[in-house]
Structures are given as C-alpha cells and as structure tokens.
Amino acid sequence: MVFALFSEEKMLKENYILLGKAGDKEIRLLPNMLNRHGLIAGASGTGKTVTLKVIAESLSQMGVSTFIADVKGDLSGMIQEGDMSAISARLDKLGITDFEVRKFPVHFFDVYRKKGHPIRAIMEEFDSLLLARILELTDAQEGNLQIILKVAQDMNLDIIDLKDLQAMANYVGEHASELSLKYGNVTKQSIGGIQRKLLQLEQQGGTNLFGMPALSIHDLISTEGGLGMMNMLECQELFQHPLLYATFLLWLLNRIYQDLPEVGDVEKPKIVFFFDEAHLLFKDAPKA
Known about the structure:
Helix content is about 35%, strand content about 10%. The chain is an alpha/beta fold and about 290 residues long.
C-alpha cells in the first residue's frame, strides 16, 4: 500500500478521506464511520504518523476538530505549509493534480506549561479509583483515600488541586480516631503512605495538572477560517511519567462521556481524538 495525500476537491465533494491506494483501488475512510474506535498500527517507518496527519488534516478541511496527543513531538509541523518538492514525485505517481500545500490551525497545550497553553483538571473530578491508580496506592491506602474524599464532601470542602488533597489528608490523619467511628478504620500509616505518594506526584510536576481554570471539552471544538481546530497536547515530557499520561487521558475520556450528548450516527463527528501509546490506558487497569 502507498499512503497518499488526497485530491482535495474530489474528497470534499464526495465526503471521504483518501488514505492511500493499492493498485487501482482507493482506500477510503468515511467520516460517518468515525464514531467507531480505530487503530493505527504498524512497525517503525511504515507510515503511522503520516496516516494520522492525513486523517487529521482531512478532518480539519471538513470543519471537524481533533485532539492529538503528540508523544514524539513530530506532529507540530502541521501549523506550517509543507514543501511541494518533497512530494511532487508521489503526486505524479498517484495522478493527483489539484493538491496544494497549506497550513492548519493548531492550539498547543502542555501540562508543564512550557510548549503550549496550560491544561488543567480539578482534583475532585478524579474519582478514588483514578486517583488510586495515578498514586499507585495499596488497597488499604485506597480505602483511606475514599474516606478522605468522603470527609471533604461531607464538610462541603472543594478539592481543587494537589495542595487541597494534601491538606485534607493531613486533617483526616490528625483526627483519625474520631473519624474512624463514622467512616471506618483510618490508619495513620495509610495516610502517611498517601502523603508520600502525593509528594512524589508533586515532584513529577503533578501540581501543573490540577487547578483552575479546568479544561472544558467544549473549548476544544472550534473552527478557524472554516478549518477544524487541531488541539495538540505536547507529551514528550508528560510521557516520561506514563501513569500520569494515561490517567490524564482517562480523565479526558470521562469528561467527554459526561459533557457531550449521545448523538448516535451522524454525517461527521464534532471532534476526533488521537491517543498515541493508547495501550497505557489499560495497563494495570481493574478488570471491571
């Protein structure tokens, strides 16, 4: 298979994405099928990144926004016009005559606030299972974390960022004896273990992820000049902490489920998400 760039006029008119050709057969992707899960797989150098770029750029031309986790840092070039000399031979081979290079609108995000806009989440939007996973807690520590969150809820206290959770854990630890009567066994050993894990998360830069203002999924859905916005998450540093990377993506998926309505089959999606190294979402995940 030869992965190809598309004939823009024909693609938009007939409403499909041209992925490539096998002989005289075109491999097409239909926008109304993009509410299904898809997998881009292959050995190194087989065209996975190019395939992602073709799909994302084609969707942008259709007015569809995308969210792309850029682990390797090789996708940001979509913000600039390409070089025709590098692809002219391929265009001739595929018989494409109306192709023109163009740049696409891109918003860059970076949890560490170095190479893009900050992207934040509210700590209390992570349920105890997600927090226990990101902190790699034992069963006993997870039970005490659930008590910490419940106590905060009963006291009408918001847990916005890492410092809020640390303060709440400290409060529960100091009042362990009296709280155990109402909420179950609270052990200072487990609370201390949670605090150590929170300190590790803070040292990994976790304080940058949690806080206000929190990301809204609706902020990712926009167009510029009729082109769908490409939202690029800089992940080169974030990916050095795979559990933090995976937990953020799980939180994002949960926000999609909570915030966007179920619409079933549509002509084209409002937004499409591309997750690199998606297997990390399922690593050490509970069977349920």
